[in-house]
Amino acid sequence: MDLSGNGRRAQRVTIRDVARDAGVSVAAVSKVLREAYGVSDALRAKVRDSMERLGYRPLAAARGMRGQTYTLGVTLSDIRNPFFTDLMAGINAALERTQYQPLVGISHSTSAIEAGLIESMMDRQMDGLILVAPHLTGAPLADLARRIPIVVVGQHQPNATEFDTVNNDDELGAELVVRHLAEQSFARIAMLSLAFDRAGSVEATVNGRRETGYRRAMAGLGLKQHINVVRAAQTLREIQTTARHMLEGPNRPEALFCWTDFVALEVISVATELGLSIPDDLAVVGYDNTFLCDLAQNDLTSVDQSGETLGLQCARLLIERIKGRGEAQHFMVKPRVVVRASSQKR
Question: Which long-range contacts (CB under 8 A, 24 or more apart) does 318-323 make?
Fold first, then answer.
């Protein structure tokens, strides 16, 4: 709380104070705040200097009444997934030189919580939303986009016209994993994917696309008889239980492709507890190439989908939408496999 020396709340700096300090009109300060067209760099710099010197902070409610709050809502399904760290780093980098600030909500992979977050963000007059792997899909998602600008990350909707999407080529990423493992002479290659718990097209989800790529690559390499997709909910207990069942079963895979690094790291932990050697007894590959992959105890092969790039692009596209762009754009990153010790035969 901002208090003056006598214990009372300090008087808030106003737009008039900034105008007086900068020696410009209130209208000029307002134009700078609104990033209006035609404002010179010199005027913008003068006003910004005064704002910083005086500690001016515009009221979000007042800005909302003028049409913008310069806040963007970001919904994430699970704060524990290290991939979201990379994504948020990209979003923050894109917003660094703008007036926009991201506010994050965690849905815990629950559609009801996600819906509540979206409504709360709209009630607070946020200018736009970045929805990461949302449960919302199809017509309801299009309806939402007619109410507020949105960009969707981690859901493939290449024909959507009401909103933008940002993804990596999930099918190609999975194909690259299977090819890499086959080159290492692994044949019994299984996939640990995510249990489907949402309505709409499975093919729109990243795990659905990765399963498609896995199956196609296995068939194309003559390994169709070894196709084995097992799904688990995105909780530690479910992942550990499912991994243990797969690794203790009679047809233990030689290699396991996990749909995220978060899952792959748990698989390595379970395998180690069971006394299995990585990669001699079990090769493991993840997806996302998060910073945890490089740690010596993990040394995890993973698909790099450029999380920071995805974050940069979704923030850029959302601001363009807010500023009036109507034509949908669908940005796609080309993945690559970063090979480490967890999948290389010794």
Answer: 318/72, 318/128, 318/129, 318/130, 318/149, 318/150, 318/151, 318/164, 319/94, 319/98, 319/100, 319/128, 321/128, 321/149, 321/150, 321/151, 321/163, 321/164, 322/68, 322/127, 322/128, 322/149
User: Is 129 in contact with 69 (CB distance < 8 Å)?
Assistant: no
Instruction: Write the pLDDT tens digit of every residue in 204-250.
Output: 899 999 999 999 999 999 999 999 999 998 889 999 999 999 999 88
Domains of the chain listed by start with CATH number:
15-58 (1.10.260.40), 71-168+307-334 (3.40.50.2300), 170-304+337-343 (3.40.50.2300)
Backbone angles phi, psi at 209, to 5 degrees: -65, -40
Question: Does residue 333 contact residue 179 with C-beta atoms inside 8 Å?
Answer: no
Q: What percent of the chain is modeled with pLDDT above 90?
A: 68
Those residues whose C-beta lies under 8 Å from the C-beta of residue 270, and which sit 6 or more positions away, are 240, 243, 244, 247
Residue type, 90: G
Question: Which amino acid, 47?
Answer: V
- How many Cβ atoms sit within 10 Å of the Cβ of residue 323? 10
**pLDDT tens by residue, 100-156:** 999 999 998 788 999 999 999 998 889 999 999 998 888 899 999 999 999 999 999
In terms of Cβ atoms closer than 10 Å to its own Cβ (0-12, 13-18, 19+), residue 11 is exposed
